[in-house]
Every structure is written in structure tokens, then in C-alpha cells.
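Hi P.,

Sorry for the delay on this. The queue was packed all week, but I finally got your sequence through. Input first:
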Amino acid sequence: MQKDIVHIWSFKQPPEQVWPYLTESDLISQWLMKNDFKPVTGHRFTFQAGPVAALDFDGIVHCEVLEIKPKEKLSYSWKYGSGKGSFHIDSTVTWTLKPTATGTELKLVHAGIDNVKYPVDFQAMYSGWKSNVDKIEKMLTT
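Then the structure:
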């Protein structure tokens, strides 16, 4: 059964100040993982972390930018596995930014993870997104 990971954050800054943390490779590296991201539809990129044997994860997340609407929406594929040419996680990450009276509402939807078949992956990403994106708030206020 697939279940979406959904998180919503409220930032005091407007979308144009939050957006770079989702689209500039150097900033993404500071709160998430080393990457070669470019904000261009169709761009294939990777996130690189250390391998996690318990998740059958070789440390590389293979992605492709699916949709980009500057300062509003970013969507990319998110695939990983053991590094042997197959992916056991084949999902999509979508970020939406909505201006509010007090700043920005940032919503993350990570869809397509089978939480019954891969409960450890699901939980690791659920808590991982929360703790990593919380770093953006700290970066914006320092």
C-alpha cells in the first residue's frame, strides 16, 4: 500500500527567500545531501549520502526534475536501491510554496513509497524530511 509523506512548514520569509534552498545546489547540500541539481525540467541529477545497508541503499538517490514553476512548485523523481541497476523505491517529491500574510507555507509531498513493503524506508524518509527541512528555518534566520 502506498502512502504519501506530507509535511507543511511555515516560514516568516517570503517564497523568493525560501525558493533558493530548494533549487540551488550549494544550499541544498547544506540541509539535505551533496547533489548536482539544476532547476531545469528534464535535468537528471543525484543526491549522494552514505550507504545504509538496513535500507538496501547504496547511498545514491537518482532523480529527474519533472516540473518547475519558479517560487511556486518543484517536482522530481526519487529512486534508489542497492546499486545493482534496480530501484526498490521509485517515488516522487513535490514541493509547493504558497505566500501567506506572514511569509510562506512550504508543503512537501513524497509520494509512491510502499509503506507496508518498505516500512523502514518510509519511516526513515518521514522523519528525515522533517529534521532536514527544519534546518532551512535555522539557515534563514542566521
